Amino acid sequence: MKVEFDWGGTVVPLPPRCGARVAAPSPTSVTASVVPLWGICPWSDELSDYDRRNIDLYARLLHDESEGAGEDDLLHGIFCLDPHRDRGRALAILRSHMARAHWIADALFQMLGW
To answer: What does the pLDDT look like over 49-93, one tens digit per residue?
Structure first.
C-alpha cells in the first residue's frame, strides 16, 4: 500500500514506518541493508542537501504528529529508536527533526508559494 501526504497540492510519498515490509532488493543492488544512525538534525537558514534527502521523513513526522502520534510513537515508528533507551539523546534527535520539519512547512513552503 502506497501512502502519500498531500501537502497543499504537492503529493509527497511517505517513507515506510519502522518494521514495515519493503520489497526485497534485487541481486544487482546493494547487498547489505543500511540502517541509518540518526543524529541531531543539522540546522541552516536555507534548504540543505540533508533536507532534500529527508523531505519524506519530514512529511512522515508532520503527518503522524497531525494524526496524534506521541513522541514515543514517533521515536519507535519512524526512527526505530527505543524511546526508553538513552531517552535524552532520542528526544533530542526527534525534536530537532520535528523543528526542522515545522520550519520547512511554515517558512520555506510559504516562500515558495506552496
So the answer is: 999 999 999 999 999 999 999 999 999 999 999 989 999 999 999
Q: Give the count of domains, the chain.
A: 1
73: DSSP letter: H
**Residue 61: which of 7, 1, 113 has the closest Cα?**
7
What's the grid cell of residue 110? 510559504
Question: Cα–Cα distance between 100 and 92 in angstroms, integer?
Answer: 12
Rounded Cα–Cα distance for residues 28 and 111 (Å): 41
User: What is the rounded CA–CA span in Å between residue 51 and residue 56?
Assistant: 9
CA 14 to chain CA centroid, nearest Å: 8
- Residue 101 sits in which domain range? 4-13+42-111
Q: Name the pTM for this structure.
A: 0.69
Please state the φ and ψ torsions of residue 46, each to the nearest 5 degrees.
-145, 165
> Is 26 part of any domain?
no
DSSP secondary structure code for residue 59 in this structure: H
24 in any annotated domain: no
96: three-class secondary structure by DSSP = helix
